[in-house]
Amino acid sequence: MEEKRALAAAKDGDLATLERLLEAGALGPGVTDALGAGLVHHATRAGHLACVKFLVQRAQLPGNQRAHNGATPVHDAAATGSLAELCWLVREGGCGLQDRDSSGVSPLHLAARFGHPVLVEWLLREGHAATLETLEGALPLHHAAVSGDLTCLKLLTAAHGRPDSSAVERCSRSRAFPSRPLGKGLRDPLLRIFPGASTPAAPGPAGHSVSVRPAVLEAVSVI
């Protein structure tokens, strides 16, 4: 019962309840949901910075706690567009700028996948590598293409430092995507950035698709 109250308080930003639970000794890293996401995960994804700070600084919970799929709270912040929480977790909460989950997905992949250009820009400015690949070879640029967010695509393309059709080819040839026709979600946004570029040929009779496999989407335990 106490665990459920703690999780609900973290989700709701109920700092008073969290303080009472701390006094009762009911807060700890063992308080998680079925997917292994802890209190800091839930406070982060809900955008409750005061609760995030309380849980890490006063309750002494690990800011970089990992869910069952290896996701840390920065993954939640990146996926939900929570810039203040992301900044604090990286700078003061013990999380790494390029924390990777068990599939190799980083905060930049998720910020791009869910169309958060402000977070993409901040991560790149702080030094997150635009060329970081998942275990299956997907770049943040792939995820931006799937989201269809043109600003994210432009930011990541500029960070690659090669505004030409080679970026299109890298996206199409990643082993993260099976052999099916290249989808509109990838082709159209990229060709808007690279006018005149043609979709490259790829192994298989019809090229590659851009569907992101479920394991990637599960990088944030709420998904």
Automatic annotation (TrEMBL):
> ANK repeat positions in this chain?
103-127
Taking the record's annotation, the residue ranges forming a coiled coil are none
Transcription regulation keyword on record: no
This protein's UniProt keywords: ANK repeat, Hearing, Repeat
Q: Which SUPFAM superfamilies match?
A: Ankyrin repeat
Query: What InterPro entries has UniProt attached to this entry?
Result: Ankyrin_rpt, Ankyrin_rpt-contain_sf, Espin/Espin-like
Its name, as the record gives it, is: Espin-like protein
UniProt-listed SMART domains: ANK
Organism whose genome encodes this protein: Eschrichtius robustus
Q: Which GO terms describe its molecular function?
A: actin filament binding
- UniProt GO BP: actin filament bundle assembly; sensory perception of sound
Give the CC-aspect GO terms: cytoplasm; stereocilium
State the compartments where it is located: Cell projection, Stereocilium
Looking at the record's lineage, which domain of life comes first? Eukaryota
